[in-house]
Design a protein that fits this description.
- The complex is a heterodimer.
- By secondary structure, chain A is mainly alpha-helical.
- Chain A has a single domain (2-55), classed as 434 Repressor (Amino-terminal Domain), CATH 1.10.260.
- Chain A contains four helices and two strands.
- Chain A has helices spanning 5-12, 16-23, 27-34, 42-52; strands at 2-3, 60-61.
- In chain A, helix 2 crosses helix 3 (27-34).
- Chain B is globular.
- The chains are: A mainly alpha, B mainly alpha.
- The interface between A and B is medium-sized, with 21 and 17 residues.
């Protein structure tokens, strides 16, 4: 699954740690999702969407 | 982010890991060379296991500095260290008593259980971590590490067994499964850690 996490994070001027704190996960989690090594669960994907005030499909897309 | 090299030496987990590994290697070398007997080796090994306390404390300080500590992770580290120390201690006591005393079968049975029980403790610590860790990616990493340990035990154990069947290698005792499992878990965690350390910012 592809995602726009890195771009969205840069737009907000957040570091991985900043985003991790907003999501209440570890920085490693953000890094793994951003680099496509880990696909988040649906609840976490919803949290990510909430943080950026976007829909899930505006952040994640199929390969 | 706080880097390990920025910490004072006594707060750096690498110092304590190095000292622990160095101590164990030295004790094993002294024992293998015949410079010390089993009892001395056991006492020295218990002393070396005491290095796990400052290692745990320094690791906790580092995780707090990185704002990366979770209660589940701290409990896991502490629990694993306690179980590993109990395993080493139990192993040492069992071997020393077995070598130096005439023991009844019942006592020998109890001695065999001494190092075996902490292994269940290690599994319980892992299970508790998986239950308590709220970060799903860290849970995923732990599951991968457990699978790495399982693969090492089953793969190496089966391969060695067949080599034994074909009379190519000597018999290996069953207790080797724990160090091999720990090696599998450790190497997998190391690999995952190195992969996650790649810059992504």
């Amino acid at each position: 699954m592809k995602n726009r996490l890195k771009v969205l994070r840069a737009m907000h001027g957040w570091s991985q740690q900043d985003l991790a704190e907003r999501l209440e996960v570890s920085r490693q989690s953000v890094n793994a999702i951003e680099t496509g090594r880990y696909d988040p669960s649906l609840p976490l994907a919803f949290r990510i969407a909430d943080v950026f005030a976007l829909k899930i499909e505006e952040i994640f897309e199929r390969d | 982010m706080t880097r390990q090299q920025d910490l004072p030496l006594y707060r750096n987990p690498r110092l304590w890991i190095g000292l622990l590994m160095g101590s164990i290697a030295t004790i094993v070398a002294l024992k293998l060379s015949g410079a010390i007997d089993s009892t001395t080796g056991l006492i020295l090994m218990c002393g070396a296991a005491g290095l796990m306390i400052p290692l745990y404390r320094s690791k906790l300080v580092l995780m707090r500095a990185r704002n990366a500590v979770s209660i589940a992770a701290a409990n896991y580290t502490l629990g694993m260290m306690a179980a590993a120390a109990a395993y080493l201690l139990g192993l040492g006591i069992a071997i020393t008593l077995h070598r130096n005393y005439e023991l009844t079968p019942f006592v020998r049975l109890a001695l065999a259980l001494l190092p075996a029980l902490p292994i269940f403790g290690m599994i319980a610590v892992m299970a508790r971590y998986l239950r308590d860790e709220s970060d799903e990616y860290l849970r995923h990493r732990m599951i991968m590490a457990s699978l790495g340990g399982l693969a090492a035990v089953l793969g190496i154990g089966s391969f060695w067994g067949f080599l034994e069947t074909f009379e190519l290698v000597p018999h290996a005792r069953g207790w080797w499964s724990v160090p091999i499992w720990a090696l599998g878990v450790g190497l997998t965690r190391l690999w995952l850690h190195a992969r996650d350390a790649r810059p992504g910012e």
